[in-house]
Design a protein that fits this description.
Length: about 550
């Protein structure tokens, strides 16, 4: 019983303050891989080395046309003063000639203007929001403040996203774009960028950053020329479905990137500029002058990008470069610090939280049928981790307790049988002794009876003799009567003696019976005491078991 209590106490102490902590193991990094031009981000398991490579070139001369000094085509920046001609009056041009000797110049004022090409598409990219999504309730696109209809293409939107952003409800309706999703709005026609505006409403219930990039283009592809764009980062939190954040943008006032323009047009009348119209006021010149041969040095590039100048290509183009990346990786394994198995369906693999190798092997001597401590080796390609495993399956405890109770019961039964056997042997020994004593008494009784019979026979013979000599020996009668009386007294005494022996044997047998009753009484008292101890032990074990179960569930909930 004490051993059972000790086992439950140890289990109870072992389950107190169990912290489900883990340990992370990393392998060494691999060697750097080849150069790639696709950008790669570093993370916990990836180390990235970036290298900038440039184009290298050499220069070869190419002759151009004749120009007045300083008025040459920028493609031919170098002049050959040994090669010149005199020109006729030139066409009107916006390039002012230098004031040089011998040059004749005529001028006039003109306006050159260029309209930006119309756009059709609006893009939402680089999307972020709480819970990995951005909630957009309603989107309104206007041309000169008049709403226009549109269609959409979306990656990462909910199924009824279009219906919800066009139904006129600006509060939250669970219309969203997933993080890193993409939304393209098709205006179904081309519009002047300066006339377009967009307004939309965002609802977000978290403090996470809300981010998106808004851009415009003429073509549908996101990789086409982007006219304007803006990157927006917001930090706010709404408290209910009726709250929202309103966003308004004039698309012609965003940041310009690579808009496309129509051909230049010329006007002799004044023209005003705008965000989508470029205007240049110029003097046009017509002139006659001496023109010189200009030439240029063409760049002949090496075939690839290099870190250093290759042979025969000594010059580096600082504007023409690419970023290349080299990647090396490592593996990661995360294992729980304490391994406690509580049921027979639990596997050692369950204690491996993460394994990027996918090649882990476990070697263990674990026995699910016997509670106790075992070892386990978690073998991975880059390391072996030895762990101590504790098997604590409640079913095993109950089996051990049952076996121990059975052993105690068998032991008590053996002691009881041994005691009964000893009592039986003692009783048989006493009985044997009494029987022997009784046999001896009976033998003595038999001998005494024989003596009595002899005396009786003698008395008869004497009586006959007395009858025969009665008359002659009257004096001797008195003496014979006395002898006869003495004999009768002795006979009475001898016949009473066996009855006394029988009474003694009966008294001893009653004593033996009384002793046996006392033994049974003592056994009943011991049984009651054992039963009482058993009930108390079961109660204590139940309380400890319930407390252990409570602590175990509490630790599992943590």
């Amino acid at each position: 019983m004490r051993r059972v209590l000790l086992i439950f106490f140890l289990i109870f102490m072992f389950n107190i303050n169990v912290n489900a902590t883990t340990t992370t193991y990393y392998s060494d990094y691999s060697s750097y891989g080849p150069y790639i031009d696709e950008k790669v981000e570093s993370d916990e398991l990836t180390d990235v080395k970036k290298t900038v490579m440039y184009r290298y070139y050499k220069e070869e001369r190419e002759n151009g046309e004749y120009y007045v000094k300083g008025q040459n085509n920028s493609l031919y920046p170098y002049i050959d003063e040994e090669d010149f001609i005199t020109t006729n009056w030139s066409e009107w041009t916006d390039s002012a000639p230098n004031e040089e000797e011998g040059r004749k110049i005529k001028t006039r004022e003109v306006y050159y203007y260029q309209e930006m090409k119309k756009v059709r598409y609006i893009h939402f990219t680089d999307i972020r929001g709480s819970n990995s999504r951005l909630n957009i309730n309603e989107i309104i696109v206007s041309n000169n403040n008049e709403p226009i209809s549109y269609t959409i293409y979306c990656e990462g939107c909910n199924n009824d996203f279009y219906e919800k952003i066009t139904n006129g409800i600006i509060t939250f309706e669970d219309s969203y774009i997933l993080e890193d999703g993409y939304l393209r709005i098709d205006l179904n026609d081309y519009y002047h960028l300066s006339d377009l505006s967009i307004k939309f409403y965002i609802t977000d219930f978290g403090y996470d950053e809300k981010r998106y990039t808004l851009s415009t283009s003429r073509d549908s592809s996101i990789n086409s020329n982007i006219y304007t764009f803006v990157v927006t980062r917001l930090f706010f939190k709404n408290n209910n479905f009726n709250e929202y954040m309103e966003r308004n943008y004039k698309l012609g006032k965003l940041i310009f990137r690579q808009p496309e323009w129509d051909e230049w047009k010329k006007s002799l009348l004044p023209i005003d500029s705008s965000s989508t119209r470029r205007v240049q006021k110029k003097l046009e010149y017509s002139y006659q002058d001496t023109m010189y041969r200009y030439y240029r040095l063409n760049k002949v590039y090496a075939a690839n990008y290099y870190e250093n100048a290759p042979e025969c290509f000594p010059k580096k183009d600082e504007k023409d470069y690419k970023e290349y990346y080299q990647v090396r990786t490592r593996d990661k394994v995360v294992i729980k610090d304490e391994i406690i198995i509580n049921n027979k369906h639990q596997k050692l693999e369950d204690f491996i939280i993460e394994d990027t190798t996918g090649k882990g092997v476990i070697d263990s001597n674990i026995n699910y049928e016997q509670n106790g401590y075992y070892y386990a080796s978690f073998i991975f390609p880059f390391t072996t981790i030895d762990k101590l495993v504790y098997v604590d399956i409640p079913e095993n405890n109950r089996s051990d307790e049952k076996e121990e109770k059975q052993e105690e019961k068998d032991e008590k039964q053996e002691k009881k049988e041994e005691k009964q056997e000893n009592k039986k042997d003692a009783l048989e020994e006493k009985t044997k002794e009494k029987i022997e004593e009784k046999v001896e008494v009976k033998e003595e009784e038999r001998e005494k009876k024989e003596d009595v019979n002899k005396i009786s026979n003698n008395n008869i013979e004497k009586s006959k003799k007395e009858d025969n000599v009665k008359e002659e020996k009257q004096e001797k009668r008195i003496t014979m009567d006395e002898i006869s009386n003495d004999v009768e007294q002795e006979t009475v005494i001898e016949t009473k003696q066996p009855q006394k022996i029988n009474n003694t044997i009966n008294n001893e047998n009653e004593s033996i019976i009384i002793n046996d009753k006392e033994i049974k009484k003592i056994e009943n008292v011991e049984k009651k005491k054992i039963k009482k101890d058993y009930v108390i032990s079961v109660f204590i074990l139940t309380i400890i078991g319930l407390f252990c179960l409570y602590k175990y569930k509490k630790s599992r909930n943590k």
